[in-house]
């Protein structure tokens, strides 16, 4: 395009391009990121001033996939893209996390990042492009973004790492790592794996980091080509006198309150200290009445919790740095569900319920970027307000709930059996939350699946590792963080896996980068804790139940010739509907001729299987059939012996004596036992009532 500035470069095994200057000129920054035929546009805009009373950074990230990007119309009645899909929400979250932490403390102007997928090849995912394009748009803007950053996807096929794997390659890969980093340090990881070791995982991160540096350099070159000076970001100056005064008045009391182990008791004490301090602070600093006190008190609380850990190795409640809270699990607690379990870790408790169904209940996917067409395993996570003792708005599923559910789903999916004949849904209802409810969901989900009789390859557990003093010279890692430790700390390092390796992971940082040695130490701590949790889980239920719940649909599998699929379905689906309606069963037919039948009624299942076998069977010479007369002619009767398969009983074969008229023996609709005596080269079937009677000892007339 005219008036554009672009930078082309090689990274992650492909030619990438950042381009700006033609579109969205009024935005603070706008960049088009291209990789092959994939084109993603990112525009950044911001408010000129922070809203009065705002005490947080209001960053909003949007990502939308337009169906025109792949030359398609949106599905449904309204031919317009509507609310974001789950995949789009997950891409928003993965874009937000590494960017949010790179704005300075005290910057409260509203910032909006709008990302749109404009063109798509349908072969690769575009979520890493969303991160890269957003970073580039922020880099060329004058917003105080302390980037740039870069993002890369890594897979592993047959032990070899693959950069920017395609959807097809990911089907063979035992690793799907989304990695984001700064020039020197890792910033975010997310994805899933099939029991990959911690050492191999770190190796994949370092491979990705080398490519991230190239992406970062390209963004800096783009800014330089635009004639913009090197960006220098300075944090807004803060008034220190109120915090200093508050520290003198309440630091000692707050520190003592942090020794209280019980969440509610501790919170009651903190509220008491807070109310008393607020009166004193407003008297000394009248301006604190306008909401500034809340922000200052939060800052003081974070400072005290971090100081306790870094200087005295004292956590909230005086728990040891690597101590896991009390663990408890129960299974089979609900009478009519297919599988149920409760998992508790301290004050965090998840109730997980498993439901099995036929594969027709699988979720159809219609992603613009391609990939899998359906999901046979779904995990949904619900976080009601009562789980933290609050009253909140109820309604649509929140982005956080979608993200936490997806993390648990990705962590459990690798351990489900391949070619499992059921669609499986797990719902996690968070009953109490005080840190890492997503990891509790993984543990409860495993127990629930095992209670349902799903033959998991191995149980999966999850744990979170936190960090304090991450930017200082005495960083401290802690295991199994509380909600308050998550809030006050520098990191939420979530890792899920089996005894053999990692299956799911997500790392959120509040600092600009994590030292490599801390990455390795965090993985080691997570593994040690995971093994302890697995011991507790297997003490609850050692292995999947041998049989599924009697309330779950039983499944039987029949293999038929692929050429007989049409015969089973029947014209317009008439035959398959007749079987399902008559016996109240569900029938799923695969392209390879696998027929799965689902029913909780054993007798109905057996009858339906006979119908399927009959509908797909071929007539056999010498076999006796229970047929039905469909047509009567002068020369004989046509009898249906299999669904859609008829044969002729000649008048001479109706009895062992001379028959004057066919109507003397049968009429249309009559049942008749016949024996197949011949099939000619054209497939025409000859039947005999006389031969069937002789073989079965019927009376002669």
Automatic annotation (TrEMBL):
Database matches in Gene3D superfamilies: GHMP Kinase, N-terminal domain (3.30.230.70), K Homology domain, type 1 (3.30.1370.10), Nucleic acid-binding proteins (2.40.50.140)
PROSITE patterns xref list: KH_TYPE_1, S1
InterPro entries attached to this UniProt entry: ExoRNase_PH_dom1 (IPR001247), ExoRNase_PH_dom2 (IPR015847), ExoRNase_PH_dom2_sf (IPR036345), KH_dom (IPR004087), KH_dom_type_1 (IPR004088), KH_dom_type_1_sf (IPR036612), NA-bd_OB-fold (IPR012340), PNPase (IPR012162)
EC number(s) on file: 2.7.7.8
Domain S1 motif: 622-690
Cofactor(s) demanded: Mg(2+)
GO molecular function: 3'-5'-RNA exonuclease activity; magnesium ion binding; polyribonucleotide nucleotidyltransferase activity; RNA binding
Catalytic activity: RNA(n+1) + phosphate = RNA(n) + a ribonucleoside 5'-diphosphate
SUPFAM superfamilies attached to this UniProt entry: Eukaryotic type KH-domain (KH-domain type I), Nucleic acid-binding proteins, Polynucleotide phosphorylase/guanosine pentaphosphate synthase (PNPase/GPSI), domain 3, Ribonuclease PH domain 2-like, Ribosomal protein S5 domain 2-like
Protein role: Involved in mRNA degradation. Catalyzes the phosphorolysis of single-stranded polyribonucleotides processively in the 3'- to 5'-direction.
Name of the protein: Polyribonucleotide nucleotidyltransferase
